[in-house]
Structure formats: C-alpha cells, structure tokens
From TrEMBL:
The chain crosses the membrane at residues 21-40, 52-69. SUPFAM superfamilies: Restriction endonuclease-like (SSF52980). It comes from Streptomyces ardesiacus. One of its GO terms (molecular function) is endonuclease activity. It comes from the Bacteria. Keywords: Endonuclease, Hydrolase, Membrane, Nuclease, Transmembrane, Transmembrane helix. The keyword NADP does not apply. This is Restriction endonuclease. Residues 129-241 form the Restriction endonuclease type IV Mrr domain. Residues 244-267 are annotated as: Disordered.
Amino acid sequence: MTVPEHRARAGRAGRRFDLRATTVTFGLAAIALVLLGWVVRMACDAAQRRPVWVFVLVLGAVTAVLLRRRARGRSTAARAALRTTDALAAATATTLDALEEDREAAPAPAPYASGEETTVAVVPAGHEELDPDEFEEAIADLCRRDGCVDVEVVGGAGDLGADVLAVAPDGRRLVIQCKRYSPDHKVGSQDLQRFGGTCFTVHGADVAVLVASTGFTAPAADYAEQCGIVCVDERWLRDWCEGGGPAPWEPLPPERDGAGPLGRASW
C-alpha cells in the first residue's frame, strides 16, 4: 500500500531562531536601561545639590515647547488669514465688476427738465385743461425755468393763501397764489382780500403774486394795486410762458399807448 506524500506548505514554514540577533537586542536594551538609570540618578543628585538649576532647565524646556507650539499656531493662523484675505479680495473684485457692468448697462438718467419745454407746451396752449394741482405745478416750473430757487408747491388745505413759495433770482421771497377758474369766472376782490391778509404778514412775502387762468374784476385790480400785489391774468401768463412778457418779479416795461397801464394790478 502506497502512502501519499504530504508536502509542507511554504506559507507555514516558521522563521529560524537567530541566537546572535536576540543576544545583541537584549544587550542593547540592557545598556539603554543602565544609561537611563544613570541619567536619572545624576538628575536626582543634581536636584538635591542644585535645585535651582533643575528648575531653570525644566522651565526652559517647557518654554521651548510652548514657543514651538505657539509658532506653529501663528503659522497656521497666518495661513488662514492669508486665505481669508485672498477670498475677500476676490469677492470685492467680483462685486466691483458686477457694479461696473450694471452701471454701463443702465440707461443714462434723463437730464432735469427745467420747465421750459414741458410748461411752455402745456400752460399757454392748454392750461384750461389742467386741474388746480397741475396748474400750481406748472407755475412752479415757470419759476424754476426763470432762475428761481427753493421753489416749493405748498397749496392745499390750510395753506393760508400760499400755493407756491420761491426765492427770486435777486433774493426776494416770492409768495404766489394760483387761481384756476373757468373762462367766464374772473377773480374778484374777495379773493384778493383773503390773499392780501396773509401774503405779507403770515408768509413774509417780498413779492406777492396772484396768477389766474382768467382775468380780474375792476375792484380786485384796484385792491391789488393799493396793497402792492402783482396780478397775472391769462394774457400775461401766456406771454410769460412764451417768453414775451416779464416774470412777475421783474421790473415792468413802460406804459403802452392805448393798451392801458402795465402796473402791478393788471396786465
């Protein structure tokens, strides 16, 4: 009977015992232990004889370790700060580029209309179609066109007779009341009396002006002339809008033959 031969597996082959290497290893370990014990003994002797030196050496070692860790921390923080600064710079540049693109893409703002184009086109030709609020705005635009500053529309409930306040080019204070009446309704003396009672005493007018879309009655014109109120009727308003007549705060031209006086009461 034949017995099959079993081959030993190479993977299970054990490592050979090396007596020399083991002896050298244990010898080095023993030497290291002896040296370590000698160092510890020397340290103990030094601690007993010179405790201050030992304290200084320990303190120096601890300080060196702390400084090294701190230096590493600073280096890490510096790198993080640099990365943060770079990110902020990139974000700022991107934002500025976007703003510049929006500015270039946005349409240019229309220049301020001084009132010459819009008011001249509306007031003289179709002021009858304006409501009272639009009429006041149109008169304010005329004042701006002719050089007035601090022009303000204040008409409304409780205005005490003032619809437009402004400062004339020569520095005088203008107080203007606007009357938007139908063509067959003239401004009467009662309107002038109410305006005359507040324009100078309440509003401190240097030049008081009543601008009407129609004419003035004779008693109203007489009262205005006595009080020094400038009355601008429909014809004066049209000439003012078209640039052919003076502004209400400007010196009036001399009298015209057969046309009546160009005084402060009527045009």
